């Protein structure tokens, strides 16, 4: 891992490159994904069938063939080792409890003139969750996507996950049972996004599509945005750690490595005003890295996408973290809550030495589906609000029309919208009469 | 206006067409917009200059030439007729008051084991507002886009609006002054979206872009989504009115016509279980339409995009409104609040005879930037939340690690993420020691 030093004049140039880390070049991918989506839209199941044969290497004979059996899910759940079952339930309960607190309420406000204004919150009717799969299974991703939808009150939740060679990981099946998902399909990649966005024969289109995925999935989600809503466009996972001399180098090393093991493209960034800590973390990483089962992936990530940033002082570390706007930000300083008010942009903020990032991945409670690549400047973690929407409520009274009708008509006329003005003035006339 | 009758067997087929009204074929537009965006991205001001010469027919010599002068805005404001100034202020104050109520708070929740979880709300740093322009001016659109950003606490708000022949409508200038916008550019269409999404020389990129526009603007917003956030992808304006026999046909006619005068593509839909009302509204519209200053536009909209739907009963009217998921929904029934709980999808719901839709366009308070074409199923009205984002807060305690560290490690191992497990287990070890 390279050390960038803010004290040097090359820093700005080097740092600018890191700020560009989130750029996803969808150029080539985009045209491939566009054709996959169009095939699904125009041909329906036939296209799905073809894509599954090509990418997942099995023959699906009918839509029913694609459905994940509930019996199979129940069995997988029953077969779970006791401690894993307990852990999954603990995660479920904590994620559920946290998301309950996010739930927005319908409200109205009454004015003295008899007018009522407000905001009505309704769940989306049908949500499509994409869960990456294959050999690795991410039951935690299912929990993190399904629970906010459940809390929101979404009635129809469907799940798509790829099943290479028509095989599914039992952990995902168990998690489907735990979340009481009754409609799930063995479809992956851009085809899955197409299936959920457009609907295919018996499968109705969704209102919102959420969930992580590779660049094909991210690109497909972006392309169908507008036909459905989506949570965000996300890229590779990343962490930044603001640490001072009080930080435990072993913890820092493991937290950086947990990010690195996700993906060759994952970024792990340590920001510290203490060179001794940086050196110690470096030594630890060099020592631990070769012992990791996912060494090949982690090594690539550490070598090409990870960095130490040596700063002048804590304040500068904070500025750099804000400029990076990372997905996961750990604050390993003597008084982490003193830093919190100054953090402007981060998907999730982990405070103090026990708030290891993996805790947030599994069972702290907040969502682990987070904005990446600097998009924490404008995207939020997945939440209940991604599965609800607002409608404004306007009940204007006769008295309010008497007070404001004239002004409203003036504004309409100044925009040359005569019928708008008349619609209001006719009401005003009837009250005056 | 055609009458569709739910009692007939052709209804489903005809209605299916109306459900498709929101489909925007961006096919051809998309490649044009893509090139405009790429030119802005690669060439910066040079491309802007060219597009302005081509579309707005004037020569901009420098970026400064594009800036709208604050002195000019102040003067336009000072020159406003007294009653219009009063009306603009009334609108401003009411919109501000309503959006204040939307503001979300940062919160934390403390657990007995010492853990703190929460959600930190921060404003976006830089918002770009697109305001359509040209001959017609929409000062109301500026208010509706700027005020939620102001309430959210956005520090840098920039505005783009086209200035054909380098001329701007004084009402927009006055509104810029009223909203205290100090950075505004005479750039329109896809170029404006490119300018705000990528930044050009001295103009920094925005974090979020909001505001209405034609299909080029909508398409450009969709294409830059992910690089920045956007409010929604919106199409032509529309209204549906659920009315029973208690409704005043004149009010219904004017409200339908106010929608029709916006745009040839606007839709006005009356849903009623009372054929007499439908006939009366039809007669009124035929009488009023030719007297409208925007007759040419309104006639096209009424002829091609508007419809009466005759239903069996109020319940069916509600079902149809939910299926349509329109931008503006008026409820002109004897007891409109009895209907409210059953409305699932609508951008804004107007209840009762005095809640004429134009009231919501100008000064009721709720936002007039609303989801169209059925997207109220999943998009919300523009609001303060479009200018803020959340960060999760996670402060796990030693006691919490003792209680849950083991379970977390089990979950990490089941996903084959060994470093994740170790990161937590090392903490657990240190507590046990």
Which helices and strands, and how do they pair?
The structure is a homodimer of 433-residue chains.
Chain A: E1 2-5, H1 11-19, H2 27-43, H3 45-56, H4 63-66, H5 70-78, H6 82-100, E2 107-110, E3 116-123, E4 126-130, H7 139-152, E5 156-160, H8 170-178, E6 183-185, H9 189-198, E7 208-210, H10 215-224, E8 229-230, E9 238-243, H11 249-260, E10 267-272, H12 275-288, H13 295-305, E11 307-310, H14 314-324, E12 328-332, H15 336-339, E13 348-351, H16 357-362, E14 388-395, H17 398-414, H18 418-432
Parallel strand pairs in A: 1-11, 4-5, 4-7, 5-6, 7-8, 9-10, 9-12, 10-11, 12-13
Antiparallel strand pairs in A: 2-3, 3-14
Give a summary of the structure in a few sentences.
With 433 residues, chain A is of the alpha/beta class.
Describe the overall structure.
The structure is a homodimer of 433-residue chains. Chain A has 18 helices and 14 strands. With 433 residues, the first copy, chain A, is an alpha/beta fold. Chain A has three domains: 2-21 and 235-364, Rossmann fold, CATH 3.40.50; 27-230, Rossmann fold, CATH 3.40.50; 396-432, no CATH class. In chain A, the strands form three sheets. The first copy, chain A, has a six-stranded parallel beta sheet with strand order 1-11-10-9-12-13, sandwiched between helices. Chain A is globular and about 90 Å long. Chain A starts with a strand and ends with a helix. The mean pLDDT of chain A is 96. At the A-B interface, helix 6, strand 3, helix 11, strand 13 and helix 16 of A face helix 6, strand 3, helix 11, strand 13 and helix 16 of B. Strand 14 of chain A pairs parallel with strand 13 of chain B, so a sheet runs across the interface.
């Amino acid at each position: 891992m390279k050390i960038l030093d803010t004290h040097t004049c090359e820093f700005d140039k080097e740092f600018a490159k890191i700020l560009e880390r989130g750029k996803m070049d969808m150029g080539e991918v985009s045209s491939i994904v566009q054709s996959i989506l169009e095939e699904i839209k125009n041909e329906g199941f036939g296209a799905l069938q073809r894509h599954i044969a090509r990418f997942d290497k099995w023959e699906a004979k009918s839509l029913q063939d694609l459905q994940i059996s509930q019996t199979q899910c129940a069995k997988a759940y029953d077969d779970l080792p006791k401690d894993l079952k307990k852990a999954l339930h603990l995660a479920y309960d904590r994620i559920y409890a946290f998301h309950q607190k996010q739930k927005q309420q319908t409200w109205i406000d009454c004015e003295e003139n008899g007018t009522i204004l407000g905001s009505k919150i309704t769940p989306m009717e049908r949500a499509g969750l994409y869960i990456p799969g294959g050999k690795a299974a991410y039951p935690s991703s299912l929990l993190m996507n399904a629970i906010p939808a459940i809390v929101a009150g979404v009635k129809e939740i469907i799940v798509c996950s790829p099943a290479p060679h028509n095989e599914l990981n039992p952990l995902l099946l168990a998690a489907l049972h735990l979340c009481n998902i009754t409609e799930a399909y063995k479809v992956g990649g851009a085809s899955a996004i197409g299936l959920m966005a457009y609907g295919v024969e018996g499968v109705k289109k969704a209102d919102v599509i959420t969930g992580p995925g590779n660049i094909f999935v991210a690109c497909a989600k972006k392309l169908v945005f507008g036909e459905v809503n989506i949570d965000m466009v996300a890229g590779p996972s990343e962490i930044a750690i603001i640490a001072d001399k009080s930080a435990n180098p072993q913890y820092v090393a493991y937290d950086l490595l947990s990010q690195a093991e996700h993906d060759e493209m994952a970024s792990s960034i340590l920001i510290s005003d203490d060179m001794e800590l940086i050196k110690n973390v470096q030594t630890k990483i060099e020592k631990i890295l070769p012992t990791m089962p996912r060494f090949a992936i982690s090594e690539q990530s550490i070598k090409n996408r990870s960095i130490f940033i040596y700063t002048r002082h804590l304040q500068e570390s904070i500025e750099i973290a804000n400029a990076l706007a990372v997905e996961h930000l750990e604050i390993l300083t003597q008084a982490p809550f003193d830093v919190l008010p100054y953090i402007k942009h981060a998907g999730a903020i982990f405070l103090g030495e026990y708030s290891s990032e993996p805790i947030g991945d599994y069972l702290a409670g907040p969502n682990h589906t987070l904005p990446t690549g600097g998009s924490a400047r404008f995207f939020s973690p997945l939440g209940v609000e991604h599965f609800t929407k607002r409608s404004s409520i306007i009940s204007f009274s006769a008295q309010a029309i008497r007070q404001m009708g004239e002004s409203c008509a003036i504004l309409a006329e100044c925009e040359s919208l005569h019928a708008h003005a008349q619609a209001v003035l006719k009401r005003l006339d009837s009250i005056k009469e």
